[in-house]
Write a structure and sequence with these properties.
With 217 residues, this protein is an alpha+beta fold. The chain has four helices and seven strands. The strands form three sheets. The protein has a three-stranded antiparallel sheet with strand order 3-2-7, covered by helices on one side. Strand 5 and strand 6 form a beta hairpin. The longest helix is centred in the N-terminal third of the chain and has 31 residues. The protein is rod-shaped. The N and C termini lie far apart (189 Å).
Length: 217
């Protein structure tokens, strides 16, 4: 509210107060002087009461327009930064498979090797040992003793599947008498284990040995 308005309202209040005092003074005077009731009534009617209302203050004048100011363009609108929220992936349920104990492979016994074949006898073998043991001093031919014949006879024998001597071929430095005696005695006395073929069957083979004839002194 401006100062002029306040001063005007204050003057109006002062006039109203003076006017009221004058009326009150007149009423008091009429009462004192014994005026009639009509006078009091007339004075009361003449008394005009009024309410002193404060008038609303006039609207304030708008502020003067600002001086020319440089036009500043509004700042560019910057969108708010995007906030990336790292959301943890949902947990993955891991279903554990039952632990299966390792199964040992079955033990397979290797097949038994076939029994080794009996060694094949490629030559005949004497069952009586050395052929020299088949001879004695009594076997010396009498004619060879008379002629003082001595020497070594090598016999090449043919041994049949039965183990018997089937052939005799003598050689050496001894006389024919001693050679013939040697083949005769070996054929009659010698016994052999015959040789075997690839199938293990007895077969014919040969056998050789030297026989020494010597006159005892």
């Amino acid at each position: 509210m401006s100062y002029a308005q306040r001063k005007e309202i204050s003057g109006n209040r002062t006039l109203a107060i003076i006017f009221v005092l004058v009326i009150q003074f007149g009423l008091g005077y009429a009462i004192v002087t014994g005026l009639a009731y009509n006078v009091i009534k007339k004075a009361a009617q003449d008394l005009k009461t009024f309410d002193v209302e404060e008038q609303p203050p006039p609207p304030e004048p708008p502020p003067p327009p600002p001086k020319d100011m440089p036009k500043v363009p509004p700042p560019p609108m910057t969108p708010p930064p995007l906030v990336r929220v790292n959301t943890a992936p949902p947990p993955i349920a891991v279903v554990e498979s039952p632990v299966i104990p390792p199964v040992a492979p079955p033990v397979i016994a290797p097949p038994k090797p076939p029994p080794p074949p009996a060694p094949r006898q490629s030559q005949a073998r004497s069952l009586t040992g050395s052929l020299q043991g088949l001879f004695s001093a009594d076997d010396y031919p009498p004619s060879a003793l008379d002629n003082n014949e001595q020497g070594t006879v090598t016999v090449n024998l043919t041994i049949g599947p039965s183990g018997r001597v089937t052939g005799c071929s003598p050689s050496g430095s001894a006389s024919s008498t001693l050679k013939n005696a040697t083949c005769r005695l070996v054929t009659a006395r010698a016994r052999f284990s015959p040789a075997q073929d690839a199938s293990g069957n007895p077969t014919t083979s040969t056998y050789s040995q030297s026989i020494v004839w010597r006159i005892a002194e």
